[in-house]
Inverse folding.
């Protein structure tokens, strides 16, 4: 069989749903997305109707936005596949009445399995057995166990059973009877009516010297089919029964045996400190930090180090491991106490109790222990006055308790571990602070290998890296995941990865119920220790659907002032439930976010609406700084939103918030907040046009349009259609948009608002032009100009004049185009629309060049480039340089022209604009002339 490359995309349904990109497993995410992708894979290269998809994903109760949600899933799957494999070895096509996965069948595991089974037929037993084992090796568990709905997979189960039966038959021919008896007993129990399996078991038993058992197997099957099905065994099985009865010589065969597996040795634990974890991995920098702290410590004082970090990060393990490694530095003792500051099922240990334990360990007799706390503190300090000890105080909560347990100065070291920062120890006691972060990917992989006891990273490198990513490189999660592989040796790493890929099940998977250890349990302790107001803030942070959360968002959700919100987030950071990665930007670890989302209740539905309201106001303020707007939407009366002061600051705010905004559109649509979804989609349109983020826009635009239609908001439908049309125009993709433009104009006529009539007439003209109906386009443009002038709508007048000039330019009417472009430029300038003004300047420069007015063209092009550079308008700068290069080339200044065109090409390529091809052609032509 031909060797096939593992490059590109591969799809697996023979087990949990799996997508590999160049051998690396992708995380698919939501159940709905997995269900949809599973249907497309099973029906690869055939169209799956959208109604069938909806019925499969939601059975009899699809939500009102089911089709829109499916569109969103398809959009996200496309982005995932395109990002993973730009070569597009597999694509999701929109083919009415649904979608189709276009892919080479060899990229589907069930296709390869079928081909291997087919190839095995007629081959000699050794080759047949090998091919069938290879086929069965493609199964990773029960088919599509992790997808919703009821995918049709019975034929795949039948294929597996047929492959199992064929493989066993081949191995029976090779004389492996005794090896197969146990497997066959289990199979016959699981599939009691498979005659072929019964026949295989009879042969295996007979050739293993268990003739009576072989006959009994037949009798059990005979009774079962007669009693339950009312039929007799088939003729083949009856013939085999007769052969066994008479010891037919044709049934003879050798017997083989298997070798035993040696046991694994145990581990010896130390006596004084708790046992250090076997195979401590990583933390080289942290251990070196503690070493330096110990080596340069003041031998007349007590050195204190606070090792802090989130639950499960490995604080205790680091402290104990370091204590064992540097034990010789403390000749007078190693003391350890767990203070149970965050223990889930135990009370905090009081200082008096800890002091009693320490004093007993230091040789004070039980009857000599003082009763009062102050007396115990005094005796403890007296005993240790001239001794050098290491004291590890694990899982601390209260700094005041720590101070009572500090030994006096004699070069002693105290290591305190806590989920809190305990900053007052730094201020009052000179403590040094060490905050632990997650492990690196390499360290995480090594940790899993160490716990499992074998190099999984060599055997399943792609799957193991996927595993550590899903565990968030958190040591506790990694150890639990590795333990699952130890406890269930039949599991592969891919099996565990598939289970962890389900966001709804990940925390349950990272839990060892019998031992009471789990990531969710550890987080629950931190959550229960929060005061009510911080618990509310933590849930609010989990409610925010994006990648990070700001004090402004928390203030909106919790209905508190900005200062209180910032203080609460700082307190959560102190508890290591969030991390402040930049000023005002708080991020939750993936596993912490999953836990926080589990706490969000239905009653907090109003919180999501408040969050949407906040972002509507923030987006509206930011977009108005980028350029003036006149669409009738106004949310600027909010006082809690961030308020950038310049266009550049507004764009920077959008850049940072863009992933959050996309996530919020999806969350709002799924929660049924349709009245706000279409508004948010409309408000981000200005940013998308400016930054050319067309692909992401299309992913949310359908949600906006569907939401407007669900709420029957005609203005909303018009504004989203207008935004979609504008994006298509900027992307050069207006062909086929006439139907949408006509629909928007009909709504404008219905509403009767002049500004909407101007907007939609302008778009209708552009769509007509793209459809080849130039004269009609000119009529519509002129009608829009007249209406805008009558209504005093200067901004829309300028926009229509600009577009009219573009149409006239294409028709060769350059003098008229130049007049209209000049008027648009003047209106933009008077009304302070800086970005549109730069666009108009560049367009006018291009028209002057075509009219042969080269000095005027050069002057305007240089002005456009200068203004674009000052306003961080990369697209406008690129276009201006393209025009300037063209003008300079016409004037014979080839070297300067090449420089401008080269810079234009660089900018267009950075932006991913298709205009780069035109510039490259012009540059190559100019270079060849030289």
């Amino acid at each position: 069989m031909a060797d096939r490359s593992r490059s590109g995309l591969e799809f697996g349904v023979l087990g949990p749903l799996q997508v590999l990109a160049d051998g690396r497993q992708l995380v698919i995410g939501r159940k709905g997305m997995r269900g949809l992708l599973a249907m497309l894979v099973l029906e690869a290269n055939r169209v799956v109707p959208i109604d069938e998809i909806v019925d499969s994903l939601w059975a009899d109760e699809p939500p009102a936005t089911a089709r829109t949600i499916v569109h969103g899933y398809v959009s996200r799957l496309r982005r995932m596949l395109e990002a993973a494999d730009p070569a597009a070895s597999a694509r999701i096509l929109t083919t009415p009445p649904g979608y189709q996965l276009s892919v080479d069948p060899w990229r589907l595991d069930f296709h390869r399995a079928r081909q291997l089974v087919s190839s095995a037929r007629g081959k000699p037993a050794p080759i047949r057995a090998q091919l069938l084992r290879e086929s069965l090796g493609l199964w990773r568990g029960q088919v599509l166990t992790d997808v919703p709905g009821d995918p049709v997979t019975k034929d795949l189960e039948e294929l597996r059973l047929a492959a199992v039966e064929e493989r066993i038959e081949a191995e029976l021919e090779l004389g492996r009877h005794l090896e197969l008896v146990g497997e066959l007993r289990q199979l016959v129990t699981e599939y009691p009516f498979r005659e072929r399996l019964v026949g295989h078991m009879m042969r295996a038993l007979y050739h293993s010297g268990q003739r009576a058992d072989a006959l009994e197997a037949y009798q059990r099957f005979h009774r079962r089919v007669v009693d339950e099905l009312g039929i007799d065994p088939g003729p083949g099985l009856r013939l085999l029964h007769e052969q066994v009865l008479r010891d037919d010589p044709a049934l003879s065969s050798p017997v083989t045996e298997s070798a035993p597996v040696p046991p694994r040795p145990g581990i010896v634990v130390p006596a004084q400190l708790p046992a250090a974890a076997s195979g401590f991995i990583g933390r080289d920098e942290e251990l070196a930090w503690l070493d330096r702290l110990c080596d340069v410590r003041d031998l007349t004082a007590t050195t204190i180090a606070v090792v802090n970090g989130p639950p499960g990060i490995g604080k205790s393990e680091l402290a104990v491991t370091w204590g064992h490694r540097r034990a010789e530095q403390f000749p007078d003792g190693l003391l350890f106490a767990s203070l149970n500051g965050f223990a889930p099922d135990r009370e905090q240990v009081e200082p008096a109790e800890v002091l009693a334990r320490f004093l007993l360990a230091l040789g004070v007799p039980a009857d000599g222990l003082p009763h009062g706390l102050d007396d115990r503190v005094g005796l403890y300090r007296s005993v240790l006055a001239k001794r050098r000890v290491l004291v590890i105080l694990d899982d601390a909560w209260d700094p005041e308790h720590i101070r009572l347990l500090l030994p006096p100065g004699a070069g002693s070291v105290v290591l305190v571990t806590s989920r809190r920062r305990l900053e007052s120890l730094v201020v009052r006691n000179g403590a040094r602070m060490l905050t632990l972060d997650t492990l690196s990917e390499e360290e995480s992989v090594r940790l899993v290998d160490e716990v499992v006891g074998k190099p999984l990273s060599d055997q399943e490198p792609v799957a193991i890296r996927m595993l550590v990513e899903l565990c968030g490189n958190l040591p506790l999660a990694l150890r639990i995941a590795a333990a699952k592989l130890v406890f269930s040796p039949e599991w592969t790493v891919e099996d565990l990865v598939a289970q962890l890929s389900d966001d709804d099940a990940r925390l349950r998977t990272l839990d060892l119920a019998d031992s009471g250890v789990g990531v969710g349990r550890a987080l629950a302790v931190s959550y229960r220790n929060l005061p009510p107001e911080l618990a509310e803030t933590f849930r609010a942070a989990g409610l925010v659907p994006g990648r990070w959360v700001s004090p402004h968002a928390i203030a909106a959700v919790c209905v508190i002032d900005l200062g209180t919100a910032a203080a609460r987030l700082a307190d959560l950071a102190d508890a290591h439930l969030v991390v402040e990665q930049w000023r005002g930007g708080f991020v939750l670890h993936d596993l912490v976010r999953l836990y926080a989302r589990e706490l969000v209740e239905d009653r907090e539905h109003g919180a999501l609406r408040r969050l949407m309201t906040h972002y509507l106001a923030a987006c509206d303020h930011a977009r108005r700084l980028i350029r003036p707007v006149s669409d009738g939407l106004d949310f600027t009366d909010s006082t809690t939103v961030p308020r950038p002061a310049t266009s550049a600051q507004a764009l920077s705010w959008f850049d940072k918030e863009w992933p959050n905004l996309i996530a919020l559109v999806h969350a709002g649509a799924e929660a049924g907040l349709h009245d706000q979804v279409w508004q948010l989609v409309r408000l981000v349109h200005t940013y998308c046009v400016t930054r050319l983020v067309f692909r992401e826009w299309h992913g949310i635009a359908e949600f906006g349009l569907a939401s407007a239609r669900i709420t029957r908001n005609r203005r909303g439908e018009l504004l989203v259609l207008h935004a979609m049309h504008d994006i298509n125009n900027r992307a050069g993709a207006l062909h086929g948009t006439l139907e949408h433009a006509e629909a928007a104009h009909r709504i404008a006529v219905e509403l009767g608002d002049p500004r909407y009539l101007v907007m939609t007439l302008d778009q209708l003209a552009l769509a007509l032009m793209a459809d080849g109906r130039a004269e009609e386009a000119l009529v519509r443009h002129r009608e829009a100009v007249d209406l805008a002038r009558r209504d005093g709508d200067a901004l829309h007048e300028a926009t229509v004049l600009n577009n009219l000039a573009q149409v006239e330019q294409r028709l060769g009417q350059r003098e008229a185009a130049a007049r209209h472009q000049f008027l648009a430029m003047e209106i933009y300038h008077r009304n302070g629309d800086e970005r549109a003004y730069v666009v108009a300047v560049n367009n006018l420069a291009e028209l002057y060049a075509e009219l042969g007015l080269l000095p005027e063209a050069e002057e305007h092009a240089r002005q456009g480039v200068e203004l674009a550079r000052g306003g961080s308008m990369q697209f406008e700068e690129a276009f201006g340089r393209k025009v300037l290069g063209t003008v300079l080339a016409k004037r014979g200044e080839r070297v300067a022209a090449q420089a401008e065109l080269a810079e234009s090409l660089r900018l267009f390529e950075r932006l991913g604009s298709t205009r780069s091809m035109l510039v490259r052609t012009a540059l190559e032509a100019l270079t060849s002339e030289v």
